[in-house]
Amino acid sequence: MSAFSNLLRKLRAERGLTLREFCLQNHFDPGNYSRLERGLYPPPQSHEQIEKYARALGLQEGSEGWLELFDVAAAARGEIPRDLLNDEELVDKLPVLFRTLRGQPVSPEKLYELAELIRRS
Fold first, then answer.
1. What structural domains does the chain harbor?
2. 121 band by pLDDT with thresholds 50, 70 and 90
3. What's the pLDDT score for residue 84?
């Protein structure tokens, strides 16, 4: 199962609802939602659909849980979260991050710039 499916299941369980109860209360198809929770379906591409799930799970817009759900969905789809892509300065620094993740050398100055940018975000 993906981190997204695990998070959906965990958040629903924290609300004390069975999958069927949760789906009935929120007008979701139980079969499709079950496939999401079991990792058989990838996270939705639609930002609006993930918002519906987030609200149904009791997450407040902009909260840590809200951001985590969107971040995990983007990662599961192999994408960078939309809000981060809107930050031009951060996007310009992504190649430094990618080189670092691949184990290629990065200058201390570039690492410092990236760390400062992350702190400000």
1. 3-80 (1.10.260.40), 87-120 (no CATH)
2. low
3. 81
Angstrom distance (rounded) from CA 33 to CA 100: 37
SS (H, E, C) 47-111: HHHHHHHHHHCCCCCCCHHHHHHHHHHHHHCCCCCHHHHCCHHHHHHHHHHHHHHCCCCCCHHHH
Residues 6+ apart with CB under 8 A from 110: 93, 96
pTM, 2 dp: 0.77
Q: How far apart are CA 100 and CA 107, in angstroms?
A: 10
- Give me 31's structure tokens: 């079969």
